[in-house]
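Agenda item 2: adenosine-5'-[phenylalaninyl-phosphate] complex prediction
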Amino acid sequence: MADETTAPDIPTQLEALEREAEAQLSACAADADFNEWRTTYLGRSGKVTQLLRGLGGLPKEERPRIGQLANTVKQRLAAALEAQQAQLRRNEHAEALKAEALDVTLPGEPVRAGQLHPITQVLNEILGIFERMGFHVVEGPEVEWDRYNFALLNIPADHPARDMWDTFYVDAEPVSNLGSMLLRTHTSPVQVRVMEETPPPVRIVAPGRVYRNEATDASHEAIFYQIEGLAVDDRINMGDLKGVLTAFARQLFGGKTRVRFNCSYFPFVEPGAEVSISCHVCSGNGCRVCKQTGWLEILGCGIVHPNVLRAVNYDPEKYSGFAFGLGVERIAMLKYGIDDIRYFYGNDIRFLEQFR
Ligand code: FA5
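Presented output:
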């Protein structure tokens, strides 16, 4: 019978099919290949199943053996598929790891370190100079009362100097002995606050932000920094003021700097002066920075007015003092040859980075 003669071929065919399937499997490299392979060999109408269709023609007693053989082949192929897929996953994982591998010998990305703002740097430098001369650093409020910003500094309500120091007022009811609440126009109120609290001798510098109701231009900001200085003791005179400020200017701008005192007017000092330094760019010969004058103005100063001393219950017959107030941005501009104050607060990193 035909079926009888084909029966011994089934195991041989199974073996050949298994070898073919294994060869094909080893060439599979992606999920799609595996799916196709599974359909071709193990699917419901795959090659193994098709071969088993011949089982029906086998003698009855042969069928279980051949059927079992076929099942074993199927199981082996299924196991081979799983193993091959797992191997592929491992290879992919290893490749991914390799791709992500970090070469620790490569130079690192530089960390962008921050820095102090140029105004903070100059402010610290100025304070350091005065601290080494024995001045203490103190601070006062930026939101002030009329009393401290003006009245106790010998600037009564109708004084014309108020126009020069016009400011921004806080929308609050004036308080009887303090007056209106405002943003301070200078650091001079700190003088008064310190003297109110401390008996002489006093030697302080007071840095801080001040506010003015004015249009900005190359040398004016509406918000800027000042440093106030105050020394009160018995027998303090103009010579002390000149000595301290000359020493300060030479430390900041160089030992050859010449210092000039011109008469000036501030209601809270008498006499008052404006201090200029010889231009450090042209050594006083005249250039663009000093507008050909050879001199650069750096601050206002003077001998504390007796009215201010009286207002804080200091006896002007016994004590005297000097005071000064400088603009930090203006000093920084002179020190670094910057021709527009607005660079400081323009937040342009290319400008700020130059002060590392
Ligand atoms: C005053 O503010 C006085 N309180 C200074 C003083 C203190 C005099 C103690 C006597 C005794 P003045 O308004 O001139 O003075 O300002 C002082 C400094 O602040 C100026 O020399 C200048 O360097 C700076 N400054 C003034 N206005 C501006 C502004 N709008 N922008 C930037 N800096 C300014």
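Discussion summary: The domain at 118-355 is CATH 3.30.930.10 (BirA Bifunctional Protein; domain 2).
Owner for follow-up: CH.
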